[in-house]
Write a structure and sequence with these properties.
Elements: H1 4-11, E1 19-22, H2 26-34, E2 40-42, H3 48-58, E3 64-69, H4 70-75, H5 78-86, E4 91-97, E5 100-101, E6 107-108, H6 117-123, E7 128-132, H7 135-146, E8 152-157, H8 172-187, H9 201-204
């Protein structure tokens, strides 16, 4: 079975200036190794697709990629229903499905027991939803999704395991502001008024 990193290597040259929001876990280190720029943000499990829907609505001319995982999608299947109802044409959902919760020891997820996330996506109203099992299939599906004006969902079956890479050290707050400032600079819009203010000294006391 193909590795997640091999799929990400195929994806990286295709994203252009798309905004990427991803779930935590091994995908984070691997993606930042391939695409270290500010157009990517990490969120908690279950929040990736909802935030991407919001981005597509706020920035209808900008391509947005939800780079998610099976466990994260399973936590919030209703998000696929929202995509199916709204059908944002600039959204591509990519699910790296290793059929387990790898970060907590590899406990099997529902996709290892018969749940078909591409079928769920189609049932939710996303007609362009496919499952890939090779790098070639994944690359072809990603190319089709990222050049179309229609919502797509790609479920990439990958084997567990992460590539041994240096740890990308950036906390969520820093990443969020970097991502927002990137949107402001590239879209010519104002998202936040002013920089975050330091916490008052009395609130720092222990």
């Amino acid at each position: 079975m193909v590795t997640r990193y091999e799929c990400l290597e195929a994806l990286a040259p295709l994203v252009g200036d798309a905004l990427v929001v991803m779930s935590p876990g091994g995908v984070e280190n691997e993606w930042f190794h391939l695409r270290p720029g500010p157009g990517t943000m990490r969120l908690m499990m279950g929040a990736v697709i909802p935030i991407c829907v919001g981005l597509t609505l706020a920035l209808p001319r900008r391509r947005v990629i939800a780079l998610d995982a099976d466990g994260s999608v399973l936590i919030n299947l209703g998000a696929l229903c929202t995509v199916g109802v709204l059908k944002p044409p600039n959204l591509t959902v990519i699910v790296m499905d290793n059929e387990c919760y790898e970060s907590i020891g590899g406990i099997p997820s529902h996709t290892a027991l018969g749940t078909d996330l591409a079928a769920v996506a189609r049932g939710a109203g996303i007609p362009h939803a496919v499952t890939t099992r090779t790098v070639e299939e994944f690359r072809a599906a990603a190319e089709a999704a990222l050049t179309a004006q229609a919502a797509h969902c790609i479920v990439a079956k990958v084997r567990p395991g992460a590539k041994d890479l240096p740890v990308f050290a950036m906390d969520g707050v820093e990443m969020k502001y970097r991502f927002i400032r990137h949107i402001e600079a590239t879209e010519g819009v104002r998202v936040l008024e002013g920089a975050p203010q330091p916490m008052p000294a009395h609130m720092l006391a222990t």
